[in-house]
Specification:
By secondary structure, the protein is α+β, with helices and mostly antiparallel strands. The chain contains 20 helices and 18 strands. It has five domains: 90 residues, GIY-YIG endonuclease; 135 residues, no CATH class; 136 residues, archaeoglobus fulgidus dsm 4304 fold (2-Layer Sandwich), CATH 3.30.2170; 171 residues, 2-Layer Sandwich (Nucleotidyltransferase, domain 5), CATH 3.30.420.340; 52 residues, DNA polymerase, domain 1 (Orthogonal Bundle).
């Protein structure tokens, strides 16, 4: 187990590493890797723990960038021996669900496909669409990813019309519900006019739609409608009838012809080339296509085995070594890890035989409490369904190939006219946003291989005291942001540059020669200019400037490399402006009372309820202020002193 005080990574202590590897038995089980802060950063399973864990530390083993980064952080390895591989599979799923290790990422998270999130960790759960599948709290639930964002938004809006759900992320008023409550579209969550228990029942009904249990929900509502009608509660029966009508419209045109419409099934298939694997999963319930989920993995690099995690976005596999059945197995394992038992279908149709299909079927059967069958159909209707899923995967692969070709041409062209030694893998873009110096902020956006990598985006609030309302200084603001971004490399020259996924191959500044000069000056002071390549892109003529050059490069605004820089510049501008608007909006909503120490939200409400406005509070004497319940003489004097500084 973890030894206290051991913060040096195992790769830097070969003797301790070898001793630890010898202690791991050659039996089936689960291994857990911890970092210097004693956090679990990776969990895996294997039929032979010793050989599997040892493979991470072989010099000859080609690891992905992500897994290689993980291995450098490992300071301790724990293991749990199991009797069977089935137990190891179930235990791995439970531990990953419990700890959510950072490096347990199976598929590429490029924020392409949206999810539906239900925050069950809150008393009044929220339902919203997100492109970030990060379980901040264990009880929160994600459904997806869905391939059609437009249809998903329509379904969510329809659910909000069918069921009385909270319609706003934040209350419109502090002391009363909004118009949605009067219209019957919201049960008054903001004022707690409904108990958390009753509201959670409504959310559970809505969740059944995203679980593919629409028909089951319709049956339950039909029974409730009949009971309400029998009890002569016709108003309630009519409301339930409208809910049933709306639910039926969700899947009115999604009928799939299968021999047994009563069986719930999932059908999964993939299409792959030398770089990508596109996986499609169709969810069919009662003969209706209720969901079409999509997953993307890069496939160039280390060979996956049934006992090793699928490659992450930075762990590609060569296609000649690719085992499609192993990929499908791992996709299904991860997909059902967080699924409720009612969401697991009784039949799973797969394009290729799974290497451990019987094992996975046994685990799912135990979780569901009902027999789960995994089939690889070869003919008749079920085989035709798999062919349809495969065609959809092929179309997605073709689209990604076209996008990949465009980005490849763009990075090649960019490397050519900037005379870069290699193709730029990570490009960072920076921009400043403010209104005459007020609420000045900056953005850092990152493109990986020509595509936005939003998990690396970052906001900055400008802290320079000379940048104030009425006095802006973009040059000083950019210099501050660059200094904060690369400060750790300047203070610790031993930090590696090459091979560090956080080190950019190219920096683009939104602006002209002046903005570029300010950034170059701060990089020179930090002794980093020789290691970083910096350019700027001016807005008006799309001109590209290099450090020390008074005239721009001779480029065409429509050539692929320049278009890539323009996309990066536009994304940095969008990200900066959105953050600036958010800061400005927050400031407008902020009351002057928020600036008084010790005056919380409850006491602010008491003051406003007594004096009716901030102006009257400012005119009140300490004695008058102290008359308000909860405001003592000391706080009353502080409030008075705030509005009447000496």
């Amino acid at each position: 187990m973890t030894k206290s005080g051991q913060t040096i990574s195992l790769v830097k202590d070969p003797e301790r590493l070898e001793n630890r590897l010898v202690e791991i038995p050659p039996e089936s089980g689960v291994y857990l890797m911890r970092d210097g802060s004693d956090r679990i950063i990776y969990i895996g399973k294997s039929r032979s723990l010793r050989s599997r864990v040892r493979s991470y530390f072989r010099e000859s083993q080609r690891l992905s960038d992500r897994i290689a980064t993980m291995v450098k952080q490992v300071t301790e390895i724990e293991f749990i021996v199991t009797d069977t591989e089935a137990e190891a599979l179930a235990l791995e799923a439970n531990l990953i669900k419990q700890h959510q290790p950072y490096f347990n990422v199976l598929l590429k998270d490029d924020k392409k496909y949206p999810y539906v999130c239900i925050t069950w960790s809150e008393h009044y759960p929220r339902i919203f669409i997100t492109r970030k599948r990060q379980l901040g709290k264990q009880k929160d639930k994600f459904y997806g990813p869905y391939t059609d964002p437009h249809l998903l938004r329509e379904i969510l809006q329809l659910c909000k019309r069918i069921f009385p759900l909270r319609q706003r992320p934040q209350p419109l008023f502090k002391d009363r519900p909004c118009l949605n409550y009067d219209l019957g579209r919201c049960p008054g969550v903001c004022q707690q006019l409904i108990s958390p228990e009753e509201y959670r029942k409504t959310v559970q009904s809505c969740a059944m739609v995203f679980q593919g249990r629409t028909q089951e929900l319709i049956d339950v509502l039909t029974e409730q409608m009949d009971k309400a009608a029998t009890a002569l509660n016709f108003e309630s029966a009519a409301r339930i009838r409208d809910q049933i009508t709306g639910l039926k419209s969700l899947s009115a045109n999604q009928k799939v012809s299968l021999p047994d419409d009563t069986v719930s099934r999932d059908a999964i298939a993939l299409a792959a080339d030398e770089q990508h694997a596109c996986i499609q999963l169709f969810q069919i319930r009662a003969g209706q296509l209720v969901g079409r989920l999509a997953f993307v993995a890069e496939v160039s690099g280390r060979l996956p085995t049934p006992h090793s995690p699928l490659p992450t976005p930075h762990s590609p596999l060569p296609t000649p070594q690719l085992e499609p059945g192993a990929i499908l197995q791992r996709v299904l394992e991860e997909h059902y890890q967080t699924a409720d038992s009612v969401e697991i279908p009784t039949e799973i149709l797969v394009q290729h035989e799974l290497p451990e299909g019987d094992l996975l079927a046994d685990v799912l059967t135990e979780r569901k409490g009902k027999k789960v069958t995994i089939l690889a159909p070869q003919r008749q209707t079920k085989a035709e369904l798999i062919e349809m899923v495969e065609r959809n995967a092929e179309y997605e692969l073709q689209r990604m190939q076209k996008l990949g070709d465009r980005n490849q041409q763009a990075t090649q062209d960019l490397a050519a006219f900037l005379d870069l030694p290699d193709l730029p893998h990570r490009i960072e873009g920076y921009d400043i946003s403010h209104i005459q110096g007020a609420n000045a902020v900056a953005s850092q956006v990152v493109f990986i291989d020509g595509l936005p990598a939003k998990q690396y985006y970052r906001h900055y609030k400008i802290k320079n005291p000379t940048v104030t309302a009425g006095h802006s200084d973009d040059f000083a603001s950019l210099a501050e942001v660059i200094e904060r971004r690369f400060r750790k490399y300047a203070t610790d020259p031993q930090l590696p540059r090459e091979g560090d996924p956080d080190w950019p191959d190219l920096i683009m500044i939104d602006g002209g020669k002046g903005q570029l000069s300010s950034v170059v000056a701060v990089l020179q002071q930090m002794n980093l200019l020789e290691d970083l390549r910096v350019v700027s892109l001016a807005k008006q003529r799309e001109e590209i400037f290099l450090p020390g050059e008074s005239i721009p490069l001779e480029t065409d605004a429509e050539q692929p490399g320049v278009q890539l820089l323009r996309r990066l510049r536009d994304e940095a501008h969008r990200f900066a402006v959105s953050f600036h608007r958010q800061q400005r909006s927050d400031k407008l909503r902020r009351s002057r009372l928020d600036e008084i120490p010790g005056l919380g939200h409850h006491r602010q409400k008491l003051l406003l309820g007594h004096f009716r406005s901030v102006d009257y509070i400012r005119q009140a004497t300490p004695v008058q202020l102290a008359e308000v319940a909860g405001i003592g003489p000391r706080l009353a004097q502080e409030i008075y002193d705030y509005f009447h500084p000496s």
